[in-house]
Design goal:
CATH architecture of the largest domain: 3-Layer(aba) Sandwich
Helix content: 40-55%
Distance between the termini: 10 Å
Number of helices: 17
CATH class of the largest domain: Alpha Beta
Pfam families: SBP_bac_1 (PF01547)
Keywords: Signal
Oligomer: single chain
InterPro entries: Bact_solute-bd_prot1, SBP
Number of domains: 2
Protein name: Extracellular solute-binding protein
Shape: globular
């Protein structure tokens, strides 16, 4: 089964990967490009407002100027809507030529369905990226996506709110995190923002408990074997259930969105309405877009997800993803050319600045100055291994079952055993 023949799931994502990308939300159509030309392409990305949207418009304009006769029509889509709309377009045979891809099992399923083409990577791009940078976008030894960023996750927090609550050290264990939650509650501060309405932010909590509970070998094998018999999978759910029972999340978290508006989980951090959020490395950019002055949050800090008792995960191991772009099966050769064009140092520098995130290019990482992201990058570079987000790793159907099971647990309508059964049942249908 081609969809499960991915290169290196976790260990290969570690060193050698040169950075991280942001995932800025939005919706609507952009008219960038258009017009008539010898070659026309459509391009879907997930940044509908601000610097990210402007970055892609400028990059497309520069590419068109450098390639007379080529025109690219841009459509920006709200992040939470992207996967569903893209899958519908792919299945209908009306896919965009250039589309956002997160790699892993999700991309492998697209490749298996014959909906994507191999990317031609030029030598200049190869000099910017190590082989490991392409691991999440490689299926059966061929590259089907161009990585723009790497997105390890962890805990973002407000230094000012921690100080108000008398918290002087960032938590290193779940017991430490629970103690911090108690202090924040005592100070009248919502401890942790969670946008469970979008499912995947809630599921991140299970992913990270699994990262701490399961060994690297177990995480490496699950994508190919789809076996959830190891007791660590249920331990992860039990640990999450115990932590959730302490009521650490914002009021109404089950109906809170993740990244849209001041009332979203990112918005709660941006406006000092909550102290912490578990999220990937795109978060500083999203938070900055939601602050009152739309500038980076001055007191934003970061720390790794805490350790748990009795877990088999490696100390310092991280979990995250890669954002990149792929070419649909019928896209012209100019699709690969555009993706290589966007990997030039000038555009990777611009990407890092526009999205306030970690670019995939090693040379462009010097542009990363946000203190929280510098902390992420340092932890990432010293991590013994990095596992891919579980829903991305497992593919669309199994990943969706996992995410739904975690939301049910947090809503009091399921437990750890139900999560494991749900993903096992979904995997059996693959």
């Amino acid at each position: 089964m081609i969809a499960r023949k991915l290169l290196a799931v976790s260990a290969a994502m570690v060193m050698g990967l040169a950075g991280l990308t942001a995932c800025s939300g939005g919706d609507g159509d952009d008219g960038g490009g258009g017009g008539s030309g010898d070659t026309q392409m459509t391009f879907w990305h997930n940044s509908t407002t601000g610097d990210g949207k402007a970055y892609w418009e400028a990059t497309v304009k520069d590419f068109e100027a450098a390639n007379p006769g080529v025109k690219i029509k841009i459509q920006s889509i709200q992040n939470e809507d992207m996967d569903g709309k893209l899958q519908t377009a792919l299945n209908s045979g009306d896919a965009p030529d250039i589309f956002m891809a997160r790699g892993g099992g999700k991309l492998a399923d697209v490749v298996e369905a014959g909906q994507a083409q191999e990317i031609v990577v030029d030598e200049a791009t190869k000099s910017q990226l190590s082989d490991a940078a392409f691991s999440a976008f490689t299926v059966d030894g061929k590259i089907y996506g161009m990585p723009m960023s790497v997105l390890p996750g962890g805990m973002y927090y407000s230094k000012d709110l921690f100080a108000q609550a008398g918290i002087t050290e960032t938590p290193e264990t779940i017991e430490d995190l629970s103690a911090a939650v108690d202090k924040l509650k005592a100070a009248g501060i919502a401890p942790i923002a969670l946008g469970a309405k979008d499912a995947w932010p809630a599921a991140h909590w299970y992913y990270f408990f699994a990262l701490r509970a399961c060994s690297q070998d177990t995480l490496d094998k699950v994508a190919t074997e789809m076996n959830f018999d190891d007791p660590c999978w249920q331990k992860a759910g039990d640990e999450l259930a115990d932590f959730a029972a302490t009521e650490p999340f914002n009021q109404g978290f089950l109906t809170t969105a993740a990244q849209t508006g001041a009332g979203s989980s990112a918005g709660l951090i941006a406006n000092h309405q909550a102290a912490m959020e578990l999220m990937g490395a795109w978060n500083p950019g999203v938070i900055a877009s939601l602050t009152p002055d739309t500038k980076p949050l001055a007191d934003l800090g970061w720390f790794p997800f805490p350790a748990i008792d009795g877990g088999d995960g490696g100390a310092g191991a991280m979990m995250g993803g890669q954002d990149g772009f792929s070419c649909s099966k019928d896209a012209p050769a100019e699709c690969s050319e555009f993706l290589n064009f966007a990997m030039q140092k000038e555009y990777q520098n611009g990407y890092a600045t526009a999205f306030q995130t970690l670019p995939a290019s090693a040379e462009a990482q010097a542009e990363v100055t946000d203190p929280a992201l510098v902390q992420v990058l340092e932890a990432y570079q010293s991590a013994p291994y990095v596992s891919l987000w579980l829903d991305t790793l497992l593919g669309q159907n199994v990943g969706n079952a996992l995410n739904a099971g975690v939301v049910n647990l947090l809503a009091g309508q399921g437990d750890s055993a139900a999560i494991v059964k749900g993903v096992a049942d979904a995997a059996a249908k693959e």
